[in-house]
Amino acid sequence: PPGRMNRNNAGLNYFVIYLQELRATVVATISRCSRRWVRFCRYLLIRLTRIIFMVETDAGNDNGAIMDSQTVNGEVPDQVIHDADMEEDEARSEATFRYVVTNFSKLKESQLSPPCYVRNLPWKIMVMPRISPMQDRQQQRSLGFFLQCNGESESSTWSCYANAELTLIAQKEGEGINTFCRKIQHLFYCKENDWGFSHFLAWNDVLDPDKGYIKDDTIILEVHVVADAPHGVSWDSKKHTGYVGLKNQGATCYMNSLLQTLYFTNQLRKAVYKMPTESDDSSKSVALALQRVFHELQFCDKPVGTKKLTKSFGWETLDSFMQHDVQEFLRVLLDKLESKMKGTCVEGTVPKLFEGKMVSFIKCKNIDYQSTRVETFYDIQLNIKGKKNIAESFRDYVKAEVLDGDNKYDAGEHGLQDAEKGVIFASFPPVLHLHLMRFQYDPVTDCSVKFNDRFEFQEKVNLNPYLQTPEATPADYTLHAVLVHSGDNHGGHYVVF
């Protein structure tokens, strides 16, 4: 145990030197290793730093609960985060940090914690006493608790969306004593660079020793923040995520979101690369333009432009400022690719990846007669109104409609018959596109309206129950991408996850 070691022991000194050399090796490795090993290297670095610190100070450490991932008053035990070698960690997407407020009962003005860096932006805890008038003309004093982002920046163009949990830590144990936390979500920008609660908790409750929040006139505030990549600031997407984005020409977010999805469909990307385009007109070839976009997404360090691609569609500049339906655009693009691939080594790739088959049927109830028709599909439009999840929507999709009464089926020589009309799936493609029909016609308003109802879809789903004949390989699917539209039928914005 470190506490029992003799610091003057020669063997111990050699051990420390060895650990320091090993730590230096890990530091040098982080900048060269692949993304999958970065997290492990950082974890190893934290552990090595802790061991060296414990050995050199000849003492154990009782603060293990906050050593690995938390910053206290801007400093991490073992000085891990503020080590220059850990600078890359400032680009992390989330962090937990604390601020210890001493002499709390005498707090008169606002205080800011030292910064904790997330997404390369400085985040600080802001604490202050707040006083508000009551209905009976008395004044209520409360604890003001806020999260500040990039507070000292002079830029007016930056923004960063984040979720955070603000917590007042309980410093003693006992029945009915718990930490007190509240959650926020906010788009931080120059005019609203702090967000939180003016009245996080009543001042008297904080000072009440029975509540357990204060000890020796000291309180501990904690924030866990999860931030999206910021906009309008220096952000090296390639360095921090391994990927780059696509430039928006004005209203091409729907196209960019779809292109990112198709780019990450590896077999399609390989087929696009293999399409022969040597003799194509560079200004009119959709295939060549798409090859360029995919190649630049893979190898460029900066956001990729799409003007050559939209020009190959025959679009004028104005067309790039008009939003189109992403499902319609997908069908047109796949149709162009399928045509271009004919007669080449990648012919049939598009239907092989995206085409499924369904059987439409009408089956008479009282006689042995039915009509069937096999159809192909590249996407499935699911009704979500009144449906909880994908399973309910699929059951609704294959639910048979009863034809009776005045709506009987004309079975030719058999006359009008009671029947069932419906569809069943014959096969699903390897890559299945589901279109959630959030836009539907409303007869009351005589226009299309958008349903923003909650709709659940799991990371994994089995579609065997909806197949006419289950295949040898189960129809198990893993969620690959989600295209999201925010807005209404008059306009909005597309993003992809």
TrEMBL record:
Signal peptide interval: none
Single GO term (MF): cysteine-type deubiquitinase activity
A GO CC annotation given for this chain: cytosol
Domain MATH: 94-225
Organism: Homalodisca liturata
Gene3D superfamilies: Apoptosis, Tumor Necrosis Factor Receptor Associated Protein 2, Chain A, Cysteine proteinases
Catalytic activity of the protein: Thiol-dependent hydrolysis of ester, thioester, amide, peptide and isopeptide bonds formed by the C-terminal Gly of ubiquitin (a 76-residue protein attached to proteins as an intracellular targeting signal)
Family note: Belongs to the peptidase C19 family.
InterPro entries per UniProt: MATH/TRAF_dom, Papain-like_cys_pep_sf, Peptidase_C19, Peptidase_C19_UCH, TRAF-like, USP, USP_CS
Residue ranges of every copy of the USP domain listed in the record: 244-497
Keywords: Hydrolase, Protease, Thiol protease, Ubl conjugation pathway
Enzyme Commission number, as recorded: 3.4.19.12
GO biological process: protein deubiquitination; proteolysis; regulation of protein stability
Stored Pfam families: MATH_2, UCH
Protein name: Ubiquitin carboxyl-terminal hydrolase
